Amino acid sequence: MEEMNVTGFPKNFLWGSASAAYQIEGGWREDGKGITNWDNFVRIPGKTYKATTGDVAVDHYHRYKEDIALMAEMGLKTYRFSVSWARIYPSGRGEVNKAGLSFYHNIIDECLKYNIEPMVTIFHWDLPQALADTYGGWESPEIIEDYVTYAKTLFAEFKDKVKYWITLNEQNIFTSLGWLTAQHPPGKFDDQKTFYQVNHHAFMAHAKAVLAYRQMGGTGEIGASFAYVPSYSLDCRPENAMSKCDYDDLKNFWWMDVYAYGRYPRAAMAYLKKKGWAPQLQPEDETVLRQAAQQVTFMGVNYYQSCVCEYNTMDGATPYGTMNTTGVKGSAEELGIPGIYKNPANPYLLTTDWDWSIDPTGLRYCCREITSRYGLPVIISENGLGAFDHKEEDNSIHDSYRISYLEKHLKELGKAIEEGCDVLAYCTWSFTDLLSWLNGYQKRYGFVYVDREEEEGGTLNRYKKDSFYWYQKVIATDGALLFDEGI
Ligand code: BG6
Questions:
Q1: Helix (H/G/I), strand (E/B), else coil: 320
Q2: CA 427 – CA 419 distance, rounded (Å)
Q3: Segment 162-179, tens digit of pLDDT
């Protein structure tokens, strides 16, 4: 569309930033917390970059007051964080750990003290290990009830303080890396049948939690956060256009259609049935999914990059290519599904040191697609640049590349809003530096530099980067700074 005359963002726009418990908290065995799947997984040799763990992470567990004070100084309107299930239910179910609830009360109260809207993610990948040991975690339908009990505990406890709830973070990613490529727990390889069944259990857990929230009188916003990688066809060859269509059904709509409509995309389901990989549904499941979809009030989008789709021959790229977890540019391999699509590099886009394409327009594309396909408001629950940062001798960090990345993405988001998309919030990833699951601490995302390396032992002191001051001004001007160089 022709350039819109964007001048700023809505007055009540939620300028935010995000984190996840395992990546920031540390305190892995404190105050009654149970062991999680990640606590164990990181101890398997070769699974994480330089064997990094979240045992201490960036010690948010002890420094949350300092971190939230920094958020207040920046002017954040919302802070998205996750609750660690094993702090609340150390064994995943059974007795509640009061100390765990107190910790999150403290976080929420600290946010509210500064008028920062807490946005709570119920599950951001750290599962109580006991549930994996007892019945295989997400592989069993038993998880649905345990997840709903855990979610209801949070609703009951925090419902009067929290208005924004995210049921699951990136269901598509934790299941793909957990059951297809063995890069996340439980570390399974190419188990397609289980992968789709696990996803069905996660959908049912999400749906039943949404319904429980409403039954308990919850009137806030609730939805899931999806890792959306929008796609472009390589060119106008029909077979490439069709590969995009297949990619969208299998990699995007498979999740978003269930959250928004409560049903699976037909072509993808037909393909899975043919392969013998389709999930088994219980008689009432479709009704539950549909009812929950009517209660969902936003689509959460974690956006980092777009991709290109090209037809893939039967002996072509697979989903198992090497991922760049070192920051050595060019080390990632092309991925795809034989006979369906592959994702070649986009020659029109630059990439990060971890080979993620940088595509601000893709963010706008996501918003437009969600708006026209689902008619739902959008929360950008993550967007950001993972980069090597350098702290100067005077403790300054000049991350102009991060400012440029965020600025371009926000400009596109402004256009999406101008074009009619209802965008409620934008959360950068992340507020402080934190543990990048597979990439260690050297892949930094924060506005606030944390003094630590892969090994334990840094001071863990916090230092504001240039991007901190820049986002502070963006927020103070309601985004006008992005569109008016004179401010
Ligand atoms: C998302 C996750 O996938 O992207 C975050 O929700 C994650 O937890 C972020 O850290 C960035 O990914 P990575 O692999 O660079 O840490």
A1: coil
A2: 20
A3: 999 999 999 999 999 999
